[in-house]
Design goal:
It is found in: Membrane. This protein is mainly α and 175 residues long. The chain contains 4 helices and 2 strands; from the N terminus they run ββαααα. The radius of gyration is 25 Å and the shape is elongated.
């Protein structure tokens, strides 16, 4: 129910409000649960990311595009790390180091140790990707058409730039 037409100017004088005044409805974040193109009082994820002007909207849309591209960059970086580490694990000696072991591996670890560390880093990258995906989902769930388009453009440009060797269907959903 829209109460924006009501005068709340003297709410601070009401008993039980302890002199606290209510903020003006003119500067509050709108929270639409329906698709809209309206950008009046649009906030993206945080109340501090409050769009109050056309310039603010444009900068925010560019930021959302860059965030979407960043997600694709993270995915590409993770895949690159996995390929590099899989090759390294395959070339790592399985057994105890001997005098015939190359010098580079003599100061390193065996396959099991490298695999454990690699798995830990992969798990951390996976957690970061999951967090990033959910944050993008929250941005998308502003239900604002401009923001939705910016997320989609970011995904497109990110895949175009970073996803050259990635199948399109590989884990693109949030979770």
């Amino acid at each position: 129910m829209d109460h924006s037409h009501m005068d709340h100017g003297n709410m601070g004088d009401m008993p039980g409000h302890g002199g606290h005044s209510m903020p003006s409805h003119g500067d509050m974040c709108s929270m639409s649960m329906l698709f809209t193109w309206d950008t009046t009082n649009l906030c993206i994820v945080f109340k501090q990311w409050h769009i109050r002007s056309t310039a603010g909207l444009l900068f925010s849309l560019i930021a959302v595009v860059l965030i979407g591209m960043g997600y694709e960059a993270l995915r590409a970086g993770t895949r690159r790390y996995e390929v590099i580490m899989d090759r390294r694990i395959d070339s790592t000696p399985s057994d105890i180091i001997t005098e015939t072991t190359p010098l580079a591996w003599a100061i390193g670890q065996n396959k099991a140790q490298v695999n454990k560390r690699t798995h830990l880093v992969k798990a951390a990258l996976y957690a970061l990707q999951t967090f990033y995906a959910f944050m993008l989902m929250l941005i998308f769930m502003t239900y604002n058409g401009w923001v939705m388009v910016a997320v989609t453009v970011g995904a497109f440009l990110g895949y175009l730039v970073f996803g050259a060797h990635t199948p399109v269907n590989k884990e693109t959903q949030c979770h």
